[in-house]
Backbone:
């Protein structure tokens, strides 16, 4: 909370206090009016207190309006910042976090759960302060009028608190279940829409409906339970209020008959009670709103508790100029964080676990890389291949520092990656990931985002698209570079999207390039269309090409073969073929020969 926020809160409290005081004054005037004008039947005695009452009411209304408006503004701003903070945190979380959390549930946490908190903050802050002061003032005024009657009434007050307490835990459980079910429903809908082709092709419509209906059933049960509990609480409070009012009227009637109280006093007193109940009820209900919001807050806190796998080095000095792009893997071992999200400390804090010891450990994920060492120099094309699950993509995740190795070092121009500012490193290492990443926007924007800060000119964008062999098909589109594309867009083929991604990478102009299966899922012709511009992209850079498609292998300066996380072979194409090992087997298995058809 900033200094400015605190000032605003003080101002809001001041407004709320003044508004509550004005209301208290108005009720006291009501008693005077009843005794002087109503009981005596005097119209002339009416105008004075009536004008004062009206003045007080208008003043209270204006101050109350100002206070409430300011409070809503402060509260909404708080919620906006909260959402931005959680969203910002999510952006820095490692890839496995997103694989282990259903996307729909994360969406729900950032929307529905934030909304629950919003309700609490917006109504909570103003209402609590207002209810608190109103209770104090009204009770003070009631004490002033008749302290004995006021105390008699307040003996019953703890009953309200007791009732709220009784209900809070159960309502919280129901609220949490509802929030979880909300997340599950969003997930099912999102997954189902994303897989619509699979659903229709395999006639899975009914299974999908069943999945939704199961989650919707859980949501309905939780929602009905929550609402039933709230309603029960409301009704109970109403009955308790009636008991209080009846008790006061009974006591009042007795006091008036004994001549110890005027009718005006009794009316004022009853009015105070009428005014007193809503804030007391609000205070009780606030507990319930807070309870519901806590369920949302806990879910947000779960996200905030997830730690980024890597952080910027503390006090990193000025990054060096002119990175050439020498990449060194020095006895690198790595394993992904365990299934419960519990991370190898070494994964978070690089350099702690210097002893490799990559032996199997029953409660941790197996090592995805073990003792891998190699060096790649500028101008070199290094091809990384191996059977599925060998650890190839893992290498591509370590270079831009999505994770740090558990043991060993990765260096860029001799500097450990964890000693370089993250943003600086990622500007120097361009990753073309396995899945083609498309942003919601025009083709121009999709290419332009390759350049940090989006500073690319139209000419540069076109040149990059030309070099990526994408210009011709883009120009042929009715809207050309202004064509809107989005994730899952059907307008462009896989190969065309891949070439847009290559244009984006070209624009980045970084010394190190990591290409993860750039031709996956493409036929030989489309693959060639992608590879040709890639050669252009590779020129003069350090290029790590991860692929099963071995038809570029003869051009590679070196081929690294991974198997079971270990580097089992390294050398040129002809050398490795002659050796007759894993590489020769992979090449002979057909991938290389099939795709090498000229
Ligand atoms: N997020 C993850 N969490 C846990 N284990 C993972 C994760 N990603 C990959 N792995 C495991 O790490 C090992 C290496 O995976 P990697 O994706 O690097 O293999 P790959 O050689 O690229 O395979 P492919 O050729 O099939 O893409 C595999 O055993 C895989 O199951």
Residues:
């Amino acid at each position: 909370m900033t200094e400015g926020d605190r000032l605003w809160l003080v101002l809001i409290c001041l407004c709320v206090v003044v508004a509550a005081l004005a209301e208290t004054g108005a009720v006291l005037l009501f008693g005077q009016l009843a005794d002087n004008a109503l009981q005596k039947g005097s119209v002339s005695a009416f105008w004075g207190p009536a004008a004062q009452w009206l003045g007080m009411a208008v003043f209270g209304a204006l101050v109350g309006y100002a206070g409430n408006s300011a409070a809503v503004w402060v509260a909404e701003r708080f919620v906006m910042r909260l959402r931005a903070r959680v969203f910002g945190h999510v952006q820095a979380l490692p890839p496995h976090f997103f694989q282990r959390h259903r996307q729909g549930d994360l969406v729900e946490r950032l929307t529905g759960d934030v909304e629950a908190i919003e309700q609490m903050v917006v109504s909570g802050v103003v209402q609590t302060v207002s209810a608190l002061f109103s209770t104090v003032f009204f009770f003070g005024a009631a004490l002033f009028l008749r302290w004995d009657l006021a105390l008699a009434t307040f003996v019953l007050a703890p009953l309200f608190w007791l009732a709220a307490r009784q209900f809070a835990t159960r309502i919280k459980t129901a609220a949490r279940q509802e929030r979880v079910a909300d997340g599950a429903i969003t997930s099912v809908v999102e997954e189902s829409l994303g897989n619509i082709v699979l659903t229709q092709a395999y006639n899975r419509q009914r299974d999908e409906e069943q999945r939704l209906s199961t989650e919707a059933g859980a949501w309905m049960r939780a929602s009905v339970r929550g609402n039933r509990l709230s309603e029960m609480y409301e009704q109970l409070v109403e009955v308790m209020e009636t008991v209080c009012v009846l008790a006061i009227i009974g006591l009042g009637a007795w006091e008036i008959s004994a001549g110890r109280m005027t009718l005006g006093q009794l009316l004022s007193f009853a009015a105070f009670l009428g005014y007193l109940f809503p804030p007391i009820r609000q205070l009780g209900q606030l507990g319930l709103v807070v309870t519901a919001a806590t369920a949302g807050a806990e879910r947000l806190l779960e996200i905030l508790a997830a730690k980024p796998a890597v952080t910027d080095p503390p006090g990193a000095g000025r990054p060096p100029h002119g990175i050439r792009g020498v990449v060194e893997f020095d006895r690198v071992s790595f394993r992904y964080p365990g299934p419960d999200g519990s991370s190898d400390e070494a994964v978070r804090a690089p350099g702690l676990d210097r002893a490799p010891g990559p032996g199997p450990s029953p409660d941790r994920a197996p090592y995805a890389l073990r003792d891998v060492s190699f060096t790649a120099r500028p101008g070199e094309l290094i091809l990384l291949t191996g059977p599925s699950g060998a650890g190839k993509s893992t290498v591509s995740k370590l270079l831009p520092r999505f994770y740090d190795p558990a043991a060993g070092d990765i260096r860029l121009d001799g500097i450990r990656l964890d000693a370089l500012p993250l943003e600086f490193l990622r500007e120097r290492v361009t990753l073309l990931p396995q899945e083609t990443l498309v942003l919601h926007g025009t083709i121009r924007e999709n290419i332009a985002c390759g350049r940090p800060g989006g500073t690319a000119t139209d000419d540069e964008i076109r040149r990059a698209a030309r070099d990526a062999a994408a210009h011709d098909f883009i120009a042929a589109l009715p809207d050309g570079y202004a064509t809107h594309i989005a994730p899952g867009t059907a307008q462009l083929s896989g190969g065309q999207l891949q070439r847009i991604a290559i244009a984006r990478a070209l624009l980045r102009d970084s010394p190190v390039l990591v290409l993860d299966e750039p031709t996956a899922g493409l036929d030989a012709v489309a693959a060639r269309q992608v590879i040709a511009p890639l050669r252009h992209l590779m020129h003069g850079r350090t290029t790590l090409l991860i692929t099963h498609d071995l038809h570029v292998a003869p051009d590679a300066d070196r081929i690294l073969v991974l198997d079971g996380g270990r580097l089992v072979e390294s050398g040129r194409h002809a050398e490795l073929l002659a050796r007759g090992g894993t590489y020769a087997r992979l090449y002979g298995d057909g991938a290389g020969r099939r795709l090498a058809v000229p």
Notes: Residues 343-362, 591-598 have pLDDT under 50 and may be disordered. The chain has two domains: 3-305, 327-595. Residues 327-595 form a domain with the Rossmann fold fold (CATH 3.40.50.300). The longest helix spans residues 205-257.
